Hints:
The complex is a heterodimer. By secondary structure, chain A is α/β, with parallel strands linked by helices. Chain A has 2 domains: 5-199, no CATH class; 204-398, 3-Layer(aba) Sandwich (Rossmann fold), CATH 3.40.50. Chain A is built from 15 helices and 10 strands. In chain A, a hairpin with a 5-residue loop joins strand 5 (288-289) and strand 6 (295-298). In chain A, helix 1 runs antiparallel to helix 2 and helix 3 (49-66) runs antiparallel to helix 4. By secondary structure, chain B is α/β, with parallel strands linked by helices. Chain B has 3 domains: 19-283, Spore Coat Polysaccharide Biosynthesis Protein SpsA, Chain A, CATH 3.90.550; 358-442 and 453-495, UDP N-Acetylglucosamine Acyltransferase, domain 1; 535-709, Alpha Horseshoe (Serine Threonine Protein Phosphatase 5, Tetratricopeptide repeat), CATH 1.25.40.180. Chain B has 24 helices and 35 strands. In chain B, a hairpin with a 3-residue loop joins strand 15 (318-320) and strand 16 (324-326). The N and C termini of chain B lie far apart (66 Å). The model of chain B is unreliable at 1-16, 440-457, 476-480 and 499-531 (pLDDT under 50). The A-B interface holds A 5-6, 8-9, 12-13, 16, 19-22, 65, 331, 333, 338-342, 346-351, 353-354, 357-358, 360 and B 58, 61-62, 91-95, 136, 168-177, 227, 277-278, 280, 292, 295, 299-304, 309-310, 316, 319-323, 340-341, 520.
Amino acid sequence: MVLSKALEAHVESFISRLKRRQIVGSYEVAKETAIILRQVVSTTRWSDATVLIQIIKDLGRRLSAAQPKELAVGNIVRRVLKIIKEVVRGELETDDIMNSGTSEESDDGFSDDDEEDNEEDSDREFKSILAQDTNDNADHTNDAIPARPKLQTESSMFNLLVDQHSDNVDYSAKSYGMKPLIIQEINEEIIADLETVYKGIADQALEHIHANEVIMTIGYSRTVKDFLTKAALKRNFQVIVAETSPTLQGQEMAAALAAVGIETTVITDSAVYAVMSRVNKVVIGAHAVLANGGLVAVTGSQMVAAAAKHHATPVLVCTALYKLSPLFPYDIDLFNVCVTPDQVLSFSEGTLIDKADVQNPYYDFVAPEFVNLFVHNLGSAPPSYVYRLINDNYDSEDTIL
Amino acid sequence: MPSRAKQKQAHGDTDADQVLQAVILSDSFNSRFMPLTYEKPRCLLPVCNVPLIEYTIEFLAISGAQEIFIVATMHAEQIKAYIESSKWSKKNSSSLHIEVVHASECLSVGDALRELDARQLITTDFILVGGDVVSNMKLDKALEAHRSRKRSDSKYTDKNAIMTMVLKEGSSYHPSRARGEESVFVVDPSTNECVHYEPMEPFPRKKRLDINAEIFERHAEIECRNDLIDPLIDICSVEVPALFSENFDWQHLRSDFVRGVLTSDILGKTIYTYISNDSYAARIQNSQQYDSVSRDILKRWTFPIVPETNLQESDIYQYSRGNIYKGTRVMLSKSCIIEDNVQIGSGTVVGENSRVTNSVIGKNCKIGNNVNIEGAYLWDNVIIEDGVAIKRSIVANDAVILTNTTLDNGCIVSFGVKIGPSVALPKYTRVGSQPQPKDDYFDDEEESDDEEGDNAVSDIDLGEQGTGYIWIDKGDNDEDNDPRNLKVASLAFDLKDLSVGKEQGDDSDSASEIGDLSDSDDERDSVGDTWHPEQSQILAARKVEEFKRELEQSISRAFAEQHTVELAALEITGLRMSANGSYDDVRDVIVPAIINQVDLSKPMPSIRTVLKKWGSLIGKVTHGKDDQVHVLHILQVHCADKEQLHKLFLPALRLLYDDDVVEEDAIFRWYNSDRSKQLGPSATALRDKATVFIKWLQEAEEEDSDEDDE
Lengths: 401, 710
């Protein structure tokens, strides 16, 4: 591994925080991963793109091994890999653009000082892009999914890389110019995207929530909260929140919704089925969306979705694109996390805990057939369309890191 | 107030500068895990296939410790080597610095802390833990509570607070409590101050708790808590190691230090508790706790510290339903049954029709066909041949169990031992790879019945191809420890087997004690039934007896070595305070001892010289009239005891009066007291002899008062 010392320390601390679950929530994880990877691109020595890809892959493997259940890590790594490949491909066509952005071309190597300058540059760059991008994004949301630059088939792109590798000298000279562009793309495509996910999803609220509807939700999700809050600005509707035992996130959610003036009712989880007949729509958040359109969501979601299916109530899942994972759930327990049973049965029940087995799964797997629509930050799609979104976002070469 | 603001600012500055230090006492200073700890230090024994110390360091790292000192005594090289090769020292820019402090001379926690004090390594408040803590607790709240007591602006300021004990709420029969070492904490719920600490050994069973009445004057409300799990996580102030140096006889952290600080009026220090009820904390002190903590980890109470978090970077475990954890390259035969709460290390093979439940199996183990493993802990590279049955036992690295062998509850098989074929080890057998050393490492007082013991147990057959030596549990060196306390602490202990130790100790109500322990429902009724104050009195009497013996030795040394009275008095005070003895007991011992110094061949000059020198010592332990009367009673009884001492009584009385050790009033009171008349004929005779003296005194006094009148 050729990471600089400071970066290695950053990576180590991120890994230990992931392991200790001091950093939870896919948004925070995704953002930190993206920032680390951007630093890798800007501060590591790499002569050509294959080396960079290898470095990112190795790091990605380490990061996702630290907390395999936090799928956002792998997703961001895959996005970065895709961007690098895109840039390499795009570079061949548009040589001139690169030259404009490369000021340090005269330097024959990247000394540490240069790298730092470089990072500062990229930060400045990043800020200006951010300002620009928020405007862009507002435009985006109106016309559904924006057209991404179309690729040739993945395999051919990879061949392109391999071929280039053979005449190294020529290629590495060009890679100086690639660096700022990759950083710019990471800033623009990933980090700026992350900044605007909540807004992107919330902006579509009015299309889905109508006046006087009864909405049911479960758990605490910032995406869902923003979505409903936005809708409440214009429309009058009622929300029923399942309390989501044993974490009682639902109560927190209800408090947050009530605070913005939404008529909110809290029910116990066991009352979900009974209440479902009155509900017009179920809106839930997700921890991750898997390749088949199934989702990993807070415990109890499967029950809500199944009850909704029985009553033919539509189920909407609000999820950002970075939660989309190309992994397939071969085993429904694969992505679940069992946390301490303390909340279910107190540890002080000394003699009892020895005799009873207590389980406290944190997530549920909700099968794709229970979901009607995914609302993501760039539009909406049914579960059967998830594979397309995944193909658009990731390179199939990178599914297994 | 500007000054305070400034002070506060200064304080904040130092806080930021100071690194959080932590001290791990890696040694257990006992032999609970023998013979395993004979070859490997306890903190490197694997718990769920991870060395125990990894959990402790991880816990300290979570809590933000930046500098960790590991105090190592036994096997210090192994600990050092392990730390150097672990991930903690590999990190090039890690914020955590670990240093192994080699302290080969230490025999107790007290010694280790004195060593720390001598080396001056501690510069701030620090976290003190044993090398055996498993916890997912974040200490920041406890640390904040500890620090805020030192600040003058907080709600409960107490500058004398020197320690905060972090305790976990449990229940009195909780499996995570150390059996045989439970203790009661008396806490003021409003400030969390610990006002009294009482160790509660189940045998002999304590029926009462003596609390100093002063405590009730100072605290409006107190709680006696017998439901706390004590993981021995302490946040200590800088002074703590120094206090240990000052009090060189303190050995244990709880029974000496905490009790010493709480009962001492001179130190004027206070100790606080922090009671946590949401996170997990426990300590592995004995094999029973090894079992319960391992099971807690498998059942995920310690989340996020669970096997699939892979504390050691080389491990990769996967979790599946029913709390089954599998490493990489695990080969399970088609017909084998893996039931709940099982962890299997990488490279392990399990044969046909074998059954594994509630167990941890290490790396690269080979388990044959038709094997039954229940609640057992197999470490790395263990080979289990066909048809073996293992129940609730520990089998260490590289051990081989040959065909058709059975290990019953509570067996411990050490490194590289071979057992079988076709033998059955009885319950609680311990097999070491080396013969048991004759003098136990920690045993100062060698118990003489070693040989008998060896002969008694060595008839256990290890099989034709068996290699290894039977070890017997000699227990701790604490002379007043009931052997049954150790038995309950062993792995898979079944209370029905307690009869082994029944004849020892008090046999008054063992049966009902067993009932109490095994069935908590009975507890409420039986407390009322089995309240025996006499028993605790007997116990107290025994303690006093011991104290007196020590006192006698000390004073005879003082006579022999011609100590000054001051030195002797200091020594007596020290003894009295450490044993919590009373002045009455002290007088009971020293008065006869002094009289015995008189050379009987020439009584008169001799008693004069003796009392001239040592009379003041009696004076030093005599405060007030009642005490003086007491001295006279002792004198009377002692002199009456032996014929040749009779004649010493009057001169002694006279001399003591002259030295102002006893005053006239006291003499009158003694003379008139009923007790002095009822101590037997010879004592009464002595009293009568004193009548002349009394008369003389009375006359003198009358004269005095006459003069006063005029």
